[in-house]
Fold PD-(D/E)XK nuclease family protein.
Amino acid sequence: MELSHSKVQMYLSCPQRYKFHYVDRLPEKPHANLEFGKLIHEVLEFLHNPRNMKTPALEELMEEFEKRWSKLPETEGMADYKPLGIKMLEDYYQVYVPLEEEVLAVEQRFRLPLENHTLVGVLDRVSRSKDGTILITDYKTSKTLPTQPEVDKDPQMTIYHHFAHDLYPGRPILMRLHFLKFDFLFETKPTDEAWTAAKKRVLGAASAIESGQFDPTPGGLCKYCDYMNLCPAMKHLFKSEDEQTEVFDGIDIKDTVREYIRLKEIVRTSNAQVDELATKIEGYMGVEGYTRLFVDNIVMSQVKTRRPKWDEERLIEVLNNLGLVEEVQGVREDMVNKLLDSDAISAEQKRELESCREIRFSYSLRYKFKGEDKD
């Protein structure tokens, strides 16, 4: 399977949208922010193309911007981006032209084998500094800045870094994220741990795609999606007035939903009342030292349940020290318990893990009525 960072990002954001776009190949309308980002990349490619006999003047750069702007599709909100683009390019030119590094390539496409799959991508600019370091620069037109720790773990930069090492073996590689709106340049050298996480992310998405897992993930971004009228999680909103009477199996669905909610609200209120009464009963039993009550033909018992509680922060620290985070898949309790029951670690290591667990007890009420157990 051929995957890119953007494909994986779309799948993880909403598998259903991925299916509409890449499997069903349904088109999306142009979006102003995406068209703007593409335009800025193209203009900077024009500026830094190593085939240029000389660096274009600022006037030539802005002419290229205007020429490409005139060819953009009509998109809602697009006009708001033009003054931003002009300022972005003028500021960039004043600061970074001429470059102090040698440009080796712009918009360099790559293919990176990953198990049975292929990762593809584009390096915005590949340069060589005076000391021989290979500089991979990725332009961003985002309106927000990430933090340095987020950049250090960024899966896109990590993948590009891994490819650059294959392309320039033995050479020092420095990754750079240039946020043009802020003229802020992040630098990072992704670690082996970041590459392991990026691989797991890609392979996990690939496995889910191959197995046909395309459930929608409704949320705040749905209102921007072009597939709302097709999506199982949203398309009911688009039923016409003529279709408002919905009958299934002889039952009006809307009335059924309303009745369901009415009854659920009754149950929720009743549950709250039950919890309040249980608290009073348990309080009485605790004060009097009772574990069972006998009322009429009811026998009510207080059941004590042993519940381990993990100190997650301490547990992560211990697992990291023991090199076992991957083995237990983070802090999954079932995996930690499995590890404790196995012979994979020493008794001393088990004691260290056990020190992260506090045993707590919870109490609940049960009763017998006419010989039947009820919770």
User: Anything to note?
Assistant: DSSP finds twelve helices and twelve strands in the chain. The longest helix spans residues 253-288. Residues 240-289 form one domain.
